[in-house]
Write a structure and sequence with these properties.
By secondary structure, this protein is of the alpha/beta class. It is 33% helix and 20% strand. It comes from freshwater metagenome.
Length: 442
């Protein structure tokens, strides 16, 4: 932004009023919503959260050298503005952030691939970025910057020379993906899958499909929609003015091309790779050779520890679909004992008890050797599992204390649950008990 916009142009892009600062001053280099990360080139947005109004930290951001702040008229009053500092007042900082991101997306004029789905959207986004590497100057969503705040920050963080933006889109209710699509205006929309997630708010899988399909609805005429070949719930939302590309069973893209090497072998990850392949082909890119994919943290990374113990750290989130896929992968990939440390799956609504009981049955069917459940809901998986090596624990702290004594040389350990369970402490405890082997990431 610094090379393209002045302070006055930034205020115009935000739909705000320049309260302080030279309108001809060089623009900012980045946008942030955390005042602690505000530095010399930062434009701080004082976003109101559930507990704290970020506008109250506008002075702190300016005092530590931020380029400028965006806040409401109330919070813009009485600020001590350092020489060269900028203050822009807006009615709604979140709406202003979205408006500025949409303008910057138009300014740089790059192609946009948007990815959503009930599970696997992050790894699909990461795989798309890997397939584009070397062929296009690409910026992809970092970690979980996939909301009404994170997505605009990703766009605003893209350099002017960016050729492709790969944006992950998350939702918790209807209308949210539609809003993200309005900001991003994607050229390619990927719906990885539809499954039972956020049922507490949406009520049914059909409603989940409708919410995910908002991405398809947000595509302009002649854009590309990439969808699973075997998902009938998306069919009502496929439009005749779009180019539809189906992947997987029942689709046009069913196999990865010969010679394309990916750093994973599990069935669900390779299915995600088919969606990624369809997306990059839509931009005229044909990936080949070894593709390096940097998976986002806590989303299926494998780590080799001492004594040949493998940890699969997949504890960022969980739902019935992703749990079953991860357990399938565990059963297929374990060379020694298979150990599943499973936490509660949250936001599943009225059927949550049934989903957890079915999880236990699936653990049994896949022949998993050891099951550790964490939380009251996860504990419902215990009786259907019925195995001798079953451990029902109340919380992640108890699991972290126990895990080191359970593991034997050669074990493969899956750690997975909803984010609120906090199972990362279990992975940390295991890595402390058995430090990573040299070159342990794979």
């Amino acid at each position: 932004m610094r090379d393209r916009w002045t302070a006055g142009q930034v205020a115009e892009a935000l739909g705000g009023t320049l309260v302080a600062g030279d309108p001809l001053a060089e623009g900012p280099s980045e946008a942030v919503v955390d005042s602690r990360k505000a530095t010399g080139g930062s434009l701080f947005f004082g976003v109101a959260g559930e507990k704290v109004d970020g506008g109250a930290f506008a002075q702190a951001a300016l005092s530590q050298g931020a380029w400028g702040v965006v806040t409401t008229a109330v919070h813009s009053q009485g600020l001590e503005v350092p020489e060269g500092g900028v203050v822009i007042a807006v009615d709604d900082p979140v709406a202003a952030l979205a408006q500025m991101a949409a303008r910057w997306r138009d300014e740089i004029g790059c192609a946009v691939i948007a990815v959503t789905g009930s599970t696997g959207k992050t790894s699909t986004k990461d795989t798309i970025a890997g397939m584009l590497a070397g062929a296009r100057r690409t910026v992809a969503t970092h970690e979980n910057f996939n909301t009404e705040i994170g997505l605009p920050l990703t766009i605003l963080g893209a350099p002017a020379e960016t050729e492709v933006l790969v944006l992950e889109m998350a939702m918790r209710g209807e209308g949210q993906i539609a809003e993200l699509a309005r900001i991003a205006r994607p050229d390619v929309g990927v719906v990885v899958n539809v499954g039972p997630v956020h049922l507490e708010l949406l009520g049914s899988v059909e409603a989940v499909a409708r919410a995910k399909a908002e991405l398809i609805g947000g595509l302009a005429e002649d854009s590309v929609a990439v969808v699973p070949g075997d998902e009938p719930l998306l069919e009502p939302y496929l439009r005749s003015d779009l180019r539809i590309v189906r992947f997987g069973p029942g689709g046009e893209i069913t196999e990865l091309p010969e010679g394309l090497e990916l750093p994973f072998a599990s069935a669900h990850m390779r299915s995600n790779a088919l969606a990624a392949l369809a997306a990059v082909r839509a931009l005229g890119v044909e990936p080949h050779g070894r593709i390096e994919v940097e998976l986002s943290q806590m989303r299926g990374q494998r780590l080799l520890l001492k004594e040949n113990v493998v940890v699969i750290n997949d504890c960022y989130n969980a739902n019935p679909m992703s749990m079953n896929a991860a357990l399938d992968d565990l059963a297929q990939s374990a060379s020694g004992r298979s150990v599943a440390v499973l936490g509660d799956m949250r936001e599943l609504g009225a059927d949550q008890r049934r989903f957890h009981a079915e999880l236990g049955a699936h653990v049994r069917e896949m022949g998993i050797d050891v099951l550790v459940t964490v939380g009251d809901l996860a504990g419902l998986a215990g009786p259907p599992f019925g195995g001798e090596d079953l451990h029902l624990l109340p919380d992640a702290a108890a699991a972290a204390e126990l895990i080191g004594s359970l593991i034997e040389p050669g074990d493969t350990v899956l750690i997975k649950g909803s984010r609120g369970v906090g199972l990362e402490v279990v992975a940390d405890a295991l890595c402390e008990a058995l430090p990573p082997a040299a070159g342990g990431d794979f």
